[in-house]
Amino acid sequence: MPQYRIREVAELLGVSDDTARRWTEAGALPAARDGAGRLVVDGAALAAFAVRTAAGAAPDATGVARSARNRFAGLVTRVLVDGVMAQVEMQCGPHRVVSLMSREAAEELGLQPGSRATAVVKATTVVVETAAGEQA
């Protein structure tokens, strides 16, 4: 089972090292000491914690039910319009999301840098990678 040092925990959860350390000190995130005396978190415990503490999906003001579960609330950071297409870039927490859509759709939505928006992702293919030499 993989173990993660506090710095790695913080990176994976998108928080500061201090926040991750406070969670372990408060007992919210179980941690132990490795052979060198460093504070580490078990991978399975970290995964469970991430699921428990994840922010819920962005609220849907329309009240429409959708099959897409991957909703990322964020801010539009860039809109490139060329001919009939538009490229819209968003910052959703630590994630950059890029969408290609029709120019008409981008204009109807009034998308511009600083606009609040939600990226809804429905994909049939998701590529999963691990670092060389690591076991998932």
Distance between the termini: 9 Å
Average pLDDT number: 86
User: Treating each run of at least 4 consecutive H or I residues as one helix, how many helices?
Assistant: 4
| Poorly predicted parts | none
What is the alpha-carbon Rg in Å?
Answer: 19 Å
Using brief descriptors, characterize the structure shown.
single chain, 136 residues, alpha+beta, Multidrug-efflux Transporter Regulator, Chain: A, Domain 2, OB fold (Dihydrolipoamide Acetyltransferase, E2P), four-stranded antiparallel sheet, three-stranded antiparallel sheet, 26% helix, 32% strand, elongated
What's the structural blueprint in terms of helices and strands?
Layout: E1 3-5, H1 6-13, H2 17-25, E2 32-33, E3 39-42, H3 43-53, E4 70-82, E5 85-92, E6 95-102, H4 103-109, E7 116-121
Antiparallel strand pairs: 1-3, 2-3, 4-5, 4-7, 5-6
Write structural notes for this entry.
This protein has 136 residues and is α+β, with helices and mostly antiparallel strands. The chain has two domains: 3-53, Multidrug-efflux Transporter Regulator, Chain: A, Domain 2, CATH 1.10.1660; 70-121, RNA polymerase II/Efflux pump adaptor protein, barrel-sandwich hybrid domain (OB fold (Dihydrolipoamide Acetyltransferase, E2P), Beta Barrel). The chain is built from four helices and seven strands. It has helices at 6-13, 17-25, 43-53, 103-109, and strands spanning 3-5, 32-33, 39-42, 70-82, 85-92, 95-102, 116-121. The strands form two sheets. It has a four-stranded antiparallel beta sheet. A three-stranded antiparallel beta sheet has the order 1-3-2. Strand 2 and strand 3 (39-42) form a beta hairpin. Helix 1 (6-13) packs across helix 2 (17-25). The chain is elongated and about 60 Å long. It starts with a strand and ends in a 15-residue tail after the last strand. The model has no long low-confidence stretch (mean pLDDT 86).
